Amino acid sequence: MKYYCLGIKGTGMSTLAQILYDLGNEVSGYDDVKDWKFTQKGLDKRGIEVYCDREHSLDKDAIVTYSVALPLDHPELVRCRENGMTVRKYNEIVGDVTKLFRTISVSGTHGKTTTSSLIRHILEYAGPVSYFVGAGDGHVDKDGEFLVIESDEFNKHFVTYHPACTVITNIEEEHMECYRDLQDIIDTFSILAHNTSEFIVACGDNPNVRKVVSYVPVYYYGFNEDNDIVVSIVDLNTRYSVFKVRFEDLDEEFAVGLFGHHMVLNAAAAVAMCHKLGVDTEIIRKALKDFRNATRRLEESRLADDIVLIDDYAHHPTEINATMESVRQKYPGRHITVIFKPNTYSRTRDFTQRFIKALSKADRVYLTEIECNRERQEDYPGVTSHLITDGIEGAQIVDENDLGNLQVEKGGVLLLVSCASVSHLVDNIKKKYC
Hints:
- This protein is α/β, with parallel strands linked by helices.
- It folds into three domains: 2-88, NAD(P)-binding Rossmann-like Domain (Rossmann fold); 99-289, Mur-like, catalytic domain (UDP-N-acetylmuramoyl-L-alanine:D-glutamate ligase, 3-Layer(aba) Sandwich), CATH 3.40.1190.10; 299-433, Protein-Tyrosine Phosphatase, Chain A, CATH 3.90.190.20.
- The chain contains 13 helices and 21 strands.
- It has helices at residues 11-22, 41-46, 75-82, 90-98, 112-126, 182-195, 261-276, 281-289, 317-330, 345-350, 352-359, 386-389, 423-433, and strands at residues 2-6, 26-30, 49-51, 63-66, 87-89, 102-107, 130-133, 137-139, 146-150, 165-168, 199-203, 218-222, 229-236, 241-247, 250-256, 299-302, 308-312, 336-340, 364-367, 396-397, 413-417.
- The strands form three sheets. The protein has a ten-stranded mixed sheet with strand order 8-7-9-6-10-11-12-13-14-15, sandwiched between helices. A six-stranded mixed sheet has the order 16-17-21-18-19-20. Strands 3-2-1-4-5 form a five-stranded parallel sheet, sandwiched between helices.
- Strand 7 and strand 8 (137-139) form a beta hairpin.
- The relative contact order is 0.10.
């Protein structure tokens, strides 16, 4: 079959395009963004054509799928419909893919990418595996039994998925432009649970997760003793997080090169899932020890003056808190400068005070203006990055095209947090500090 993917440089759509290609389909795509993005790596490797204008001809036999970041009146989507092409929603096609494998769905408000990547990494040590991770990272191994998929709750995407096994890392308020309230979010996770055919591994320390209704066995994990899978910290140092997992006949220590309590929980979820799937304990231990996280998850590079640049996908206050904990563990005592690039007006409005509290944990704070491709600024009057900077002493707005007011301490950490495209900002930072 032929597929034409609109918004193909988005993390989810890029991954889907790669999966469809690996399944033997002809794939091409369109994106408004002309700059190179990290999500193109897998597309370029496969030779998938990406158009950034509307001058090319359309193949009427191709199935069109589109990112929800594109408005329904987007000119390219309109052009496809006018040409009589079949249009299907992104998550419907992803749902079809999940039926082809013994799918492991990794869901939750936070931690999906890391937990998916951990499970994939462990399973790769045990045998061939396919994966659909929302960091622009997708691959199909037709000899593999499993597909590990990061399952996004945005716009209720995952209700079309059909996993054998599911992980739920946590549930809290997020994407409130898509949900009525917190109960609506919990009910949507219950739909994913109902679609799960074998078992669920879920974080029992999170009270909202405990409210999810399931018809298959649920194994709760967490630091609390009332969980089925009890996790305990052994040591948090600058190289590894060492922890113990007690679950059924398993009572073992593991070490992973990730930092912070939240990362220990992500790793424990991966351990429990793979143990339940029958992976040998020594394979799990070895895989964890040499794990390296996904793209834009605490991704490091070095600048002049011994400055460490860390690029992280964190974009919610809880995620920024967790990222700050990770950085403080790995780089204790260093001065931390943070640049936050907000990507939606609704999240900025809904979590202003929580953003202020989370970002205030840094030593120096900068924000860019909000960059959003799925919301219109006129629908959110008065919502700008100044809502956050006005609440943090000394915080400033920085223009990513002119970093004149950006100051970073020698030997410090420059932490960049956003789920928006930051390649241009990173390039300008490196020009300033290299």
